[in-house]
Amino acid sequence: MRLARLSALAALPLIAALGGCVTVNGVEHSYHPSRAVIGDFGEATLMNATGARVGRAILTQGATGLLMRIEAEGLTPGWHGVHIHATGQCAAPFTSAGGHINHGEPKAPHGLLNADGPDDGDLPNVFADAQGRVNAEVFTTRARIARNGPGEWLWDADGSALVIHANMDDQTSQPIGGAGDRVVCGVMAAG
Ligand SMILES: [Cu+2]
What we know:
Layout: H1 2-30, E1 41-48, E2 53-61, E3 66-72, E4 78-80, E5 82-85, E6 126-128, E7 134-140, E8 143-144, E9 152-153, E10 161-165, E11 182-190
Parallel strand pairs: 8-9
Antiparallel strand pairs: 1-2, 1-11, 2-3, 3-7, 4-6, 5-10, 10-11
């Protein structure tokens, strides 16, 4: 019993030392560029080409990427390409939103299924039901709203926009996978 107590006491400095190590690692971890601090939120009001509100996107920062919930209506039933565009301006026909965010060096071609891609703005397609409604969540490791972490920072000087296209993105062909016109656009902003 006495020996056990001594052992336990002897172990205390070791536990403290281990704790210190964990803390040190934790501090290093928090500065590691491959992880973001969780907790930042953002949103985008989604507009169609006539300027009507057709939905919203809710952005939530995760440790390794950005989760985006997309709720929209009034779309053509079927698959639609969705991308993060480089400029936070949504004046119809939404060319004001610029090209896709693609700040990598060297810049990568478009397409989640492109052997040399994807670019940073690429996202999976979303599906509009028979009533033209979309409810989806997409996740990307190539964009962030946290100040530090993986991916391109969406709160840069000219902002960013979420764009839904008329057609499905084939995730391979240039420049936008055949996704066609920009039918919905939302300026993304900190929440
Ligand atoms: Cu696009």
